[in-house]
Amino acid sequence: MKFMAIERAIGHPSEDDFHPYLKDEAHLIWKLYECGKLREIYFNDDHRAVLFLEGETKDDVMSCLDKLPLVKARLIRFEIHELHPYLGFKRLFQYDED
């Protein structure tokens, strides 16, 4: 299944709070990408990370994200949404019999 995870800050951390964890965070993000769990990663306009991940369940994805250093340090959390295929294209192939 495909999931979208959006980063949310916990409290009001400063940039200095994040600094000690960033290299380890990048390393673990790379490992998630390398093993196929993480498919895409972006920043939105608010500079929040937006991740697209593959997993069996929402709990599976959450357990991967819980290992990230910034999550373990309780600086961020993720809001996770399960994504479903868009099925609207089938309307293009339905014929009305009038």
TL;DR of this structure?
With 98 residues, this protein is of the alpha+beta class. The chain is 30% helix and 29% strand.
Explain this structure to me?
The chain has 98 residues and is of the alpha+beta class. The chain has a domain at 2-51 and 58-74. It is 30% helix and 29% strand. The longest helix is centred in the first third of the chain and has 13 residues, at 22-34. It starts with a strand and ends in a 15-residue tail after the last strand. The model has no long low-confidence stretch (mean pLDDT 94).
Instruction: Give the overall pLDDT as a whole number.
Output: 94
Helix content: 25-40%
Main sheet characteristics: 4 strands, antiparallel
Distance between the termini: 39 Å
Uncertain spans: none
Quaternary state of the chains = single chain
Radius of gyration from the alpha-carbon trace, in angstroms: 17 Å
